[in-house]
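Internal ticket - ligand job 573, magnesium ion:
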Amino acid sequence: MRASRFFISTLKEAPSDAEIVSHQLMMRAGMIKRLGSGIYTYMPMGLRVIRKVEAIVREEMNRAAGIELLMPLVQPAELWQETGRWDKMGAELLRLKDRHGREFAFQPTSEEVITDVVRSEIKSYRQLPLNFYHIQTKFRDERRPRFGLMRGREFTMKDAYSFDRDAAGMQASYQVMFDAYTRIFNRFGLQFRAVAADNGAIGGSGSHEFHVIASTGEDALVYCPDSDYAANMEAAEAVAPAAPRAAAGAALVKTATPDATKCEQVAAQLGLPLSRTVKTLALTVDLEADGKTTQQHFMLLLRGDHELNEIKAGKVAGLANHRFSTEAEILDVYGCVPGYLGPIGTKAAVTVVADRSVANMADFVCGANDAGFHYTGANWGRDVAEPALVADLRNVVEGDASPDGKGVLAIERGIEVGHVFQLGTAYSESMKATFLDENGKPAPLQMGCYGIGITRILGAAIEQNFDDKGIIWPTALAPFELVLCPMGMDRSEMVKQATEQLYADAQAAGIDVIVDDRGQRPGAMFADWELIGVPHRVVIGERGLKEGNLEYQGRRDTEASAVPLAEIIAFVQ
Ligand code: ATP
Ligand code: MG
Ligand code: MG
Ligand code: MG
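stdout (structure tokens):
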């Protein structure tokens, strides 16, 4: 590729609505362009990365005996009614009508359509197992699209669906997909963790999420460094025993309120020591309802794995600027920000007693405000004597013993980039998708489904790999692997020839190379490629050439080094 014939459009500043670094850098590097809320044009530079993600996913899906097809974007409502999801999906499902008034869904996922394909195609157990997949556009009318490609409304997903004759077969197909996902995320060059996404009640989890590890991730992951226990927060909390936690104490927090003794009374009442401290953040939110705006004050309890400053600078800052229309919407956000959000009346009276950090998380904060005494937790603002208070102690925190008895738990944050799921016969039963077993009897197909957020991968990769100059792509995902930066190509025949030779050699060696022949000044040229995040840069200048050298700098290197002309290709590979 020659830069003069490609489309490069970089910005010095990110638009103000870009809240997190990946969104900012993708906008600045000209990878995406916003068309509407959660809807983006994938610009040429961004599309190259998307295609690399897709190619790796496709190769590994094919290797794992996945069979590619392509199912329609627009799907008849009747299919969605068969499974009951036409109603269940609520506002997230985008619905359309054709000219005859017939209803359709714009697919958010494709279980219904694939089950429809399979119920008419599969007759006998001899045709099984099967695993169909496609890489296709999705639409989900997310309540709060944000963070660029991370939570878009229109996005690309790889979704696969396995069909087996029995539960053991389904579990085997699931394991094949689990292993394929592990290979895929390793090939991306990203740090990731697979976590159980349900409580594993029947021994072994029927669902796992794959998360790219990043401090800005929306999800809290609970894992044990001394064993292979790993679960998302919801799954971990579902199995956390309430009573032992209460017995272990350290679950009540005192805040500096006008009535701090009340906290002590509550502690005594519940038999809990007042030993834990917590960071809280009071925020004021404009609530818009019925055309009226009222200001409400909320208190955010920070989960133990987050630093106050980080939250202030990032998500909560964004939250404070966000205009909510219902209180439910704020509570919805509670699932997205790392903490609890509780109304504390009309006056923010809560302050932080102590500022111990990371290892602590509050299950409760006792606070007082002008409306009287409140505590927070899952049951906001109720009386402290509620038995629910004890039930709420089922919070998993860093340092808890683990469920497998092999060590203490640690918490880190992740971005959900993949999800594998054992569905069993839920869809095949509601849609009557059966096959004839060895005895000639009809039986429902055993199904699994497996998603990867193709476009979300870009955001997740950047959240994990950037510096103050821009993106640092892992080589496997980079839009180009190598950029050649000639110094004065138009003035120096020597530079021109060396550049053309190197360009040809790199292509012949299978390197994805771009030569920057735009005639820009070195500073501007280097800044562009550092922002775009190309892993290898070679500068070709007359002075170096006279000594038989080129100047090489890896994207993570702090300075350039001289590399002999003859060795440069091997050096880059
Ligand atoms: P989330 O919890 O982030 O809303 P999900 O659990 O609803 O995701 P799944 O139904 O499991 O998503 O879909 C499979 C994958 O699709 C997810 O693991 C994620 O990588 C991706 N994905 C889901 N929603 C979006 C979105 N709005 N924008 C981009 N990618 C998404
Ligand atoms: Mg979702
Ligand atoms: Mg999810
Ligand atoms: Mg999911």
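Auto-summary: The chain is about 30% helix and 30% strand. The pocket of magnesium ion (ligand 3) is lined by residues 416 (CB under 6 Å).
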